[in-house]
């Protein structure tokens, strides 16, 4: 190979991509109990933290565009997890709220992060390493977000 930088093993993006796919697959066993997907779980986590948000507020938090989020939210409404209500002040704005069904699963869902770590054999690993990794990934996300807004 003429260029070392083109080897898959030298890429930073591939391990992040692969990790994303593998962790999302692991989540499936926990989320199937609630009949939800990982992106739906992310929306629920945002709304469990602060209920009744606009689609744009949820999108900003999850780094998703409204054209990606809207069909996801419509499916969640069919599952009776969220309600969508247009603003009376600005009908272009749609607010998303948790239903009672979504509120009822929060307590049970709170065990998912710990169960996931145990399930993949990370329960004995140093938590500081995970916190450091998360902080470094958040820093990289912030840098990429800032780059996107300045270009």
Summarize the structure.
With 151 residues, this protein is mainly alpha-helical.
Descriptive account of the structure:
The chain is mainly α. The chain has a domain at 121-151. It has 7 helices and 3 strands, in the order ααβααββααα. A 3-stranded antiparallel sheet has the order 1-3-2. A hairpin with a 7-residue loop joins strand 2 (82-86) and strand 3. The longest helix is centred in the C-terminal third of the chain and has 24 residues, at 127-150. The protein is globular and about 60 Å long. The two termini are 33 Å apart. 10% of the residues are buried.
Mean pLDDT: 90
**How large a portion of the residues is in β-strands, by DSSP E?**
5-15%
Class by SSE composition? mainly alpha
The main β sheet shows up as:
3 strands, antiparallel
Shape: globular
Number of helices: 7
Low-pLDDT runs: none
> What is the distance, rounded to the nearest whole angstrom, between the alpha carbons of the first and last residues?
33 Å
The helical percent reads: 55-70%
Computed over alpha carbons, the radius of gyration is 18 Å
Strand arrangement within the widest β-sheet reads 1-3-2
Instruction: Find the count of extended strands (DSSP E, 2+ residues).
Output: 3
SSE order, one letter for each helix or strand: HHEHHEEHHH
């Amino acid at each position: 190979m003429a260029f070392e930088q083109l080897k898959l093993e030298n890429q930073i993006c591939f391990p992040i991509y692969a990790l994303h796919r593998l962790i999302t697959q692991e989540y499936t066993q926990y989320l199937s109990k609630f009949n939800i997907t990982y992106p739906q779980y992310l929306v629920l986590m945002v709304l469990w933290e602060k209920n009744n948000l606009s689609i744009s507020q949820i999108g900003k938090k999850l780094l998703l565009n409204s054209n990606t989020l809207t069909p996801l939210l419509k499916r969640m409404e069919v599952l009776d997890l969220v309600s969508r209500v247009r603003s009376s002040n600005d009908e272009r704005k749609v607010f998303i709220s948790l239903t009672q069904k979504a509120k009822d699963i929060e307590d049970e869902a709170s065990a998912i992060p710990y169960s996931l770590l145990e399930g993949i054999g990370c329960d004995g690993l140093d938590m500081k390493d995970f916190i450091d990794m998360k902080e470094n990934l958040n820093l990289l996300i912030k840098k990429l977000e800032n780059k996107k807004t300045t270009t």
